[in-house]
Amino acid sequence: MGSLIRASRSRKQSNYLYILSESNTFNPILRRLNWLRSILSREFCSHPRQKDDNIADLSQYPTERIRNFSIIAHVDHGKSTLADRLLELTGTIKRGLGQPQYLDKLQVERERGITVKAQTATMFHRHNLGAPDVDNTQEAPSYLLNLIDTPGHVDFSYEVSRSLAACQGALLVVDAAQGVQAQTVANFYLAFESNLSIIPVINKIDQPTADPQRVKDQLMSMFDLDPADALLTSAKTGLGLEHVLPAVIERIPPPPGISTSNLRMLLLDSYYDEYKGVICHVAVVDGALRKGDKISSAATGQSYDVLDVGFMNPELKSTGMLFTGQVGYVVSGMRSTKEARIGDTLFLARSVVEPLPGFKPVQHMVFSGLYPADGSDFEALNSAIERLTCNDASVSVTKESSTALGLGFRCGFLGLLHMDVFHQRLEQEHGASIISTIPTVPYIFEFTDGSKMKVQNPAALTADAGKRVKKCWEPTVSATIIIPSEYVGAVITLCSDRRGEQLEYTFIDSQRVLLKYRLPLREIVVDFYNELKSITSGYASLDYEDADYQTSDLVKLDILLNGLPVDAMATIVHNLKAQRVGRELVDKLKKFIDRQMFEITIQAAIGSKIVARETISAMRKNVIAKCYGGDITRKKKLLEKQKEGKKRMKRVGSVDIPQEAFHELLKVG
Amino acid sequence: MLKSSLAPILSIIPMKPKYPVACLSLCKAFRPSSVRDNVSVNAVEPFEPPPKSYPTSAYIHLPFCRKRCRYCDFPIVALGSSSANLPDDIDDPRFLNYVQLLCREIEATKVLKSDNNSPLETVFFGGGTPSLVPPRLVSKILETLTSKFGVNSNAEISIEMDPGTFDAQKLSDLLNLGVNRVSLGVQAFQEELLKACGRAHSLKEVYEAIEIIGSCGASNWSLDLISSLPHQTSEMWKESLECAIKAEPTHVSVYDLQVEKGTKFGLLYKPGEFPLPDDTLSAEFYKMSSKTLCNTGYNHYEISSYCKKGYECQHNLTYWKNGYYHAFGLGSASHLDGVRFSRPRKMKEYASYVQNLEDGALIQHENGQKDAKDLEMDVVMLSLRTSKGLDLTSFRECFGSCLVLSLCKTFRPYIESGHVLLLDDKRRVLVIEEFWSVLSNESKIEEEVAFIRLSDPDGFLLSNELISIAFGVISP
């Protein structure tokens, strides 16, 4: 408290309010100020908010008066806006005060309109169960509603499944104009498999192109959802929103936990706060949790003291306890988010409980090398990655070194988007400038001596005499693609070009087709989605889930500059595509490497077989032969600029490679 | 062969160590107390006022031109055609006012240190088109210089002249004033190229100008050409070189067209793209000049300069030696006491600069602090432009031998490819085996390598690349 008072003194009131209105709530300092504000308002307001304090007494909410739900939707169908409206409707956030997409706190989430981290928000709403006509809501009992916001992307499907496991129902939001899309399908099945009550919400009905009837038909034919159950809303205008929360309370069952049992809680996600340390989002499944309890993790076996506990309203609100069926946060002595495994079961130390089902260790699907753009920045990159992984423990990081790029890291990601987001956060939040190597998927190689190896870095696959590759496997995914029927031909061509195997081909209504393909993960890692979007004028939607490993004819494709292999440019490709990929890589490099003092040969090779070759002829002339009347400063500046330009290049052997060349290689399929 | 072609330079340029002295003293003055102190301090004597670090060269900028050439980005004043109508004995007030201003600048310049004993040894009238200025005004400038600094009786006094701007009378007047070197801006021997450049003179006037120079007995003169002009072909360039040689100048400058931002060419053309010759062709032009001129008795003593034995432009040598020099006039750049300073490029601002100078409101060259790296870069950049190259003996004295070693190591691939040459103190080029053997033995480098130079033409052609690589060694 002492520090809080100091904080309040050190800021002028007006200044402090201004900062609040900026409402960057992710910033821990601001969050603290927010907390301060709530304390101040409680102490100094002329009308103490008696009601608020009553509501915050969580022991008043048995499971019958708790509903835990999630909102699931295809991207841009209005999930975040609907969440904002519900938070406003319940007075959790003030209308116009919060920033849009309130629960998406990262810059990258806002920019891309995606959710990367799970968030929870607790709301209170008065409702007369079974008597919706009774107007007197003052008398109606108050319900505790926990909205669990999940990431929407396939990369995070495990996180989604864990978040959904804490829910008993979900709002399935569908755009009234666009109808069911690939992610709608994927999310529906996730929710369906978790036995959730599903409330279809047809959103954006204010749009001129809205066709709710068609969407209802789709929901009926695809998911067997009763059209009468669908709510029609416009989160933008507020139309129909008043029916949403009553539906949540009436149609979604209360959490099934047993309050008299030993504590079991599900770890949903975690983030790192500079002041509090690791903060875990949890759902209490059975029993109750109190501040001061000692808890253990089923996954790691570690024990922790509960230092603080409370719920998100939507900012941290300490209550000292959480009861069965409630969702909130726990601050324990965890030192890093790596200790907080998503899907883990936390329980009282020294009690014996059955861990909750569904926990899986993180599985990395995409690997790439990360190197500082400027070789001397290794330490800076190291600390940036350390800080970022504090908040995103799902990235695996091991040091590696490359002859071409020097010291760096091999990072494992949940998927491509996850990798992209990680890169972007490194640059945006930590100011790091990086070179990434071509992403690779985890292959399995079996050698003639019987040994097997999981290859996460193509460079690790060295030609070793007496140890030849006998067999190899690559990971595949099962992809769902939904497209207007006129694009079927183009999409089938694309998929077969990417070595896909068709599993399903169905019309979901008169104009839309659902295709299911089994595709090698490697083929969709690079540029598949962009290609799909471009051949379908943006109408295609895609979702995929991990499938099995399949045997494949894989080769390592080396890139050689002046005869020397560049380890950071090696990639593993299917034998049949090696020639084409090699040609593309060589062409890209030729385009992005400038003429230098000597001729440069660029080759792509499989073993000793050259599959593509280009040369960049030597620079002819680079001279300033001009009379300057003694004014040499401009010339010197030019040469210094030229020198700086060289510094930004990566030198491999005798060849200077600009960073863009590495970036461009990432785009070669 | 190389030795014999270089010997003249060595014998003609008296080895008055201009830059070594200058940089030695500068280097002592602000040598940072760094690692280098441990390297070769023994060579450096305790600090004493340097005997001759004062300037003995002066550049005078005369900015007037009839019109602006289409490639030109120098600070000039285009006159248009109006000046032709004035009677002979009345000077265009624009000339008069400018020369007055210029002389005020000279007079207001503070004389540094013991300059009283150091008359100027080179004066260079550059432009613009200095030959447009009436000789009596040139005379006034020379008088002002003489009374301010003194001008050595055998000083080199150069003037840039454009064909069509002077007659025999004008030239003899100038020669009588003491001007003894002419730099004639011919640029091309093809009418269509002269037009394309926006030159104010015709080909006929070029021949007339050459004729006048011969008849007036100006024995030390330079013919200036520009290569890589738009639509220029190999045949044209060959012809230009042949015509130049036929005119028998003692000096030839060959400038390679630089397309500068803000010029007409900058708007119209992109370097290396049609109608400009591509890099390969323009490199061909450069090689052709080097070969043709060297075969007819010219020494390629600097990237863009060729001369007959003993006819180096002494004034320009001051630049390449990183020496000090005065500069007066619009936009001109001086190098005094370790400071490079450019005057305003706009007339109004230049006038108020001169006013402030007179009022003492400007403290000249106050900020003499320049770090050693900057000085090293200047020395490397300028000396590598010359065929003499970087004199390692004095460079080591100033900056320590460890820099020389890393320079040799970094240059290794370019030494092996012949772009960079190492020479011993007798100016003999080390063969590659010798280079390898000295590279493995650090003290041997000091013993056996006295100069680093860029080869002609391959090294010169890539000089920017090579110098910026050297910059990377100096300031990583």
TrEMBL record, chain A:
A GO MF term: mitochondrial ribosome binding
Q: Does the keyword Nucleotide-binding apply?
A: yes
- Cite the EC number: 3.6.5.n1
Q: Which SUPFAM superfamilies does the record cross-reference, listed alphabetically?
A: EF-G C-terminal domain-like, P-loop containing nucleoside triphosphate hydrolases
**Could you tell me which CDD domains the record lists for this protein?**
EF4_II (cd03699), EF4_III (cd16260), LepA (cd01890), lepA_C (cd03709)
Give GO terms for biological process. Answer: positive regulation of translation; translation
Q: Which reaction does it catalyse?
A: GTP + H2O = GDP + phosphate + H(+)
Q: Family assignment?
A: Belongs to the GTP-binding elongation factor family. LepA subfamily. Belongs to the TRAFAC class translation factor GTPase superfamily. Classic translation factor GTPase family. LepA subfamily.
Protein name, entry field: Translation factor GUF1 homolog, mitochondrial
Organism, as annotated: Papaver atlanticum
UniProtKB/TrEMBL annotation, chain B:
What GO molecular function annotations does the UniProt record carry, in alphabetical order?
4 iron, 4 sulfur cluster binding; coproporphyrinogen oxidase activity
UniProt xrefs under PROSITE patterns: RADICAL_SAM (PS51918)
Gene Ontology annotations of biological process type: porphyrin-containing compound biosynthetic process
Q: Where are the transmembrane segments?
A: none
Q: Name one GO cellular component term.
A: cytoplasm
Gene3D superfamilies linked: tm_1862 like domain
Pfam families from the xrefs? Radical_SAM
Q: Which InterPro entries match?
A: Coproporphyrinogen-III_oxidase, Elp3/MiaA/NifB-like_rSAM, HemW-like, rSAM, rSAM_horseshoe, rSAM_sf
Q: Which domain of life is it from?
A: Eukaryota
Query: In this protein, which residues make up the domain named Radical SAM core?
Result: 50-299
Function per UniProt:
May be a heme chaperone, appears to bind heme. Homologous bacterial proteins do not have oxygen-independent coproporphyrinogen-III oxidase activity. Binds 1 [4Fe-4S] cluster. The cluster is coordinated with 3 cysteines and an exchangeable S-adenosyl-L-methionine.
Family stated for the protein in its record = Belongs to the anaerobic coproporphyrinogen-III oxidase family. HemW subfamily.
**This protein is called what?**
Radical S-adenosyl methionine domain-containing protein 1, mitochondrial
